[in-house]
Specification:
Layout (H helix, E strand, L loop, with lengths): L1 E3 L12 H9 L2 E4 L2 H15 L7 E4 L5 H6 L10 E4 L11 H10 L4 E3 L5 H9 L7 E5 L4 H13 L4 E5 L4 H11 L4 E6 L7 E6 H9 L7 E5 L12 H5 L5 H12 L3 H10 L1
Parallel strand pairs: 1-4, 1-5, 2-3, 2-4, 6-7
Antiparallel strand pairs: 7-10, 8-9, 8-10
Helix pairs in contact: 6-7, 6-10, 7-8, 10-11
Length: about 270
């Protein structure tokens, strides 16, 4: 049996009794990072006398997925196997999704345990979501793809949840403030840990707050929903006024006008 086991996102006490019981029954742990996984097992054994005795730790991440699945033996899942991501729910911004698909394709029995999840925690803590929201995970790091992703998040009819690193959190909020300074944003860092911090304000005010804050730690933000129900409500003139590269503007204009991207780009660069 293959078990997908959520791990604490900060506070070790968030591990469930069921997760500990299942881990006791597993011989093998497939891990996003074997060092993190081994450290967690050691802490659970020390803190809670968990008596977990996994004999083999195998890495599975975005760089070794092909080799991992190619080298799997037919009887690998005849034993109890745990999959554990570094923190939180497996399969959410995580290589575990490829293992789920493999199990489905090869008729392997699997179970997903419930547990810690940073996205849901952020949604509830934000007070910005009545029911529906959109999870965007980590945005592209740089360039036009990132600019487009930020614009997309601002155009959604539902609150958007984004994960971000301490190196890029201020830049992300600044980019939002440049486009929509009054858009309400909730941000949380180091969720469930000793130095958990929450912030909620307009984008322009949040920039000033974060400029003075300690940004170390992992972040999640929730962007309030757009007051425009669809991308089509955004006018061509509004896009032309945005501080974006011509290629990015051309793609956005293509979405609402249907005109050829190259033709739009040529017109923008001639202006």
């Amino acid at each position: 049996m293959l078990y997908f086991i959520p791990t604490p996102i900060g506070n070790l006490e968030d591990i469930s009794l069921r997760a500990i019981r299942i881990l006791r029954e597993c011989e093998i742990a497939i891990c996003e990072d074997t060092r993190v996984c081994k450290s967690l097992i050691n802490l659970l054994n020390e803190r809670f006398d968990a008596s977990i005795n996994i004999s083999k730790f195998i890495p599975l991440h975005t760089h070794n997925e092909d080799d991992f699945f190619t080298n799997l033996s037919d009887d690998f899942f005849s034993r109890n196997v745990a999959y554990m991501s570094d923190a939180g729910m497996p399969g959410i911004s995580d290589p575990g999704v490829s293992l789920v698909r493999y199990a489905q394709k090869n008729d392997i029995k699997y179970e997903i345990l419930s547990g810690a999840n940073a996205a849901l925690l952020s949604v509830v803590a934000s007070g910005l979501c009545d029911k529906e929201f959109v999870f965007l995970g980590f945005l592209p790091n740089t360039g036009r793809d990132r600019a487009l992703a930020i614009q997309n998040a601002l155009n959604l009819a539902y609150p958007a949840v984004i994960y971000e690193s301490p190196k890029r959190i201020l830049g992300l909020v600044q980019s939002i403030a440049n486009l929509e300074p009054e858009r309400e944003i909730f941000a949380i860092k180091e969720a469930t840990k000793k130095f958990e911090s929450k912030f909620k304000d307009s984008a322009k005010n949040l920039v000033q707050i974060l400029e003075k804050a300690n940004l170390s730690g992992e972040w999640a933000i929730v962007i309030s929903k757009s007051d425009k129900t669809a991308t089509q409500n955004i006018t061509k003139d509004e896009i032309l006024l945005l501080d974006l590269a011509p290629k990015v503007k051309a793609k956005l204009l293509n979405k609402i006008t249907g005109e050829d991207v190259k033709k739009i780009y040529d017109e923008l660069t001639k202006a």
